[in-house]
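One-letter codes give the sequence; the integers encode the fold. A sample entry reads:
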Amino acid sequence: MKCLVIIPAYNEEQNIVRVIENLKNNYPMYDYVVINDGSGDDTAGLCRRHGYELIDLAVNLGLSGAFQTGLKYAYRNGYDYAIQFDADGQHRPEYIAPMLDKIQEGYDIVIGSRFVTQKKPGSLRMLGSNLISLATRMTTGRKVKDPTSGMRMFNKKMIAEFALNLNYGPEPDTISYLLKQGATIAEVQVEMDERIAGESYLNLSRSVMYMMRMLLSILFIQNFRKRREVKVK
């Protein structure tokens, strides 16, 4: 069993060393790769000086492009599982093991969810999460409690499908689309930390635009997508 931790990183010079050193020192059973997404700071330089596993993109492709790069790497190197992992230190690697246990029950995707056993706090951001959950349930009949979680694990079949198809972003609308197409998805309770350093890309205005884009995609655009399944090596 081979599991790859894919770490898209954009301007994370203040966090990347702490995140990778934690993985290397405490979780050496997992392989990892940093996808430097055209950062304008010293993210790539730090990775090179420390000898980290690095794919250095020449331009900024955004999260979808960076993560698909990582899944292409996982596909070409024969990994059984791959997990999306934030470079800002919010995701805790101790939850990789229970997610692996869950996905080996036969699921295609396992989401590290903050809200399997915990209630969502009342905030504008959680309102958006609730609306996306509702839209997903309306269109698929399935409830995803933490649709915006960025901690997602994929099995070998999903690695191939994400690696070889266009428009497969690691976003809630793709989860909704795959559910509608028959993919099996589970959630595992996790805890996430607050960002210690640096700034998140998602400010208030971008968060609102993101929510609207996801709702439009889930409720309307996904109805016109056609799935092209791929063969697993």
Notes: The radius of gyration is 17 Å. The chain is about 40% helix and 15% strand. Residues 21 and 109 are 27 Å apart (CA to CA).
